[in-house]
TrEMBL record:
It comes from Eleusine coracana subsp. coracana. This is Fatty acid hydroxylase domain-containing protein. It is a multi-pass membrane protein. GO terms for molecular function: fatty acid 2-hydroxylase activity; iron ion binding. The keyword Transmembrane helix applies. GO terms for biological process: fatty acid biosynthetic process. The chain crosses the membrane at residues 55-77, 83-101, 136-159, 165-184. Residues 88-226 form the Fatty acid hydroxylase domain. Its cofactor is Zn(2+). The keyword Kinase does not apply. Belongs to the sterol desaturase family. Keywords: Endoplasmic reticulum, Fatty acid biosynthesis, Fatty acid metabolism, Lipid biosynthesis, Lipid metabolism, Membrane, Metal-binding, Oxidoreductase, Transmembrane, Transmembrane helix, Zinc. It comes from the Eukaryota.
Amino acid sequence: MVVQEFTVDLNKPLVFQVGHLEERYQEWVHQPIVSKEGPRFFGNDILEFLTRTKWWAVPTIWLPVVCCLFVKSIIMGHTIQEVALMALFGIFIWTLIEYTLHRFLFHIDTKMYWSNTAHYLLHGCHHKHPMDSLRLVFPPAATAILCVPFWNLVAFFATPSTTPALFGGGLLGYVMYDCTHYYVHHGQPSKDPAKRLKRYHLNHHFRIQDKGFGITSSLWDVVFGTLPPSTPGKKN
């Protein structure tokens, strides 16, 4: 008996379909569909709503939180200059977190039903539909949940008065990352460095998908040897 291979129906909610691709999922998800209209994820309207986020929601929600965190460290005795230095350090650490998550979590190799499903929700959907403007930035509810372990991690290494400024710097780095990510997909920069950054990231989507993991900077790609070659080559 010949068993017919599972085929994804793009006209139906995708999330609970993609897991059935099993070993073929990675090949399927890295064949992008270039369309501004994103697919439907869930049949349930509430769950579907939670997967869609306007880009401006990120700075609108999180920049006031960043400011409050900086003010908290100032109230606890730090100067503005000290808080600024801690914020810069937090941003720097975020760039490493950004690279690490993108390379080792977002591009993890999955083959089983639930791991494929989780990967698609986390990052696979972005590679399959890279121009879906409502699924480019991280949903605020998910960000809020992830803030808890990251806050505890910073608090473990820092003092009570430096934790808010350091965490605020990291959170500011995240806001810069998400806004930059949206811009390199949907903006039309005419000058460097924005034009170069857009070209660098779209190269990751459409030419060499296992290189170029930095979004806001190529720094860590240089450090860890994942900088894509400058000449066109075979698509990976």
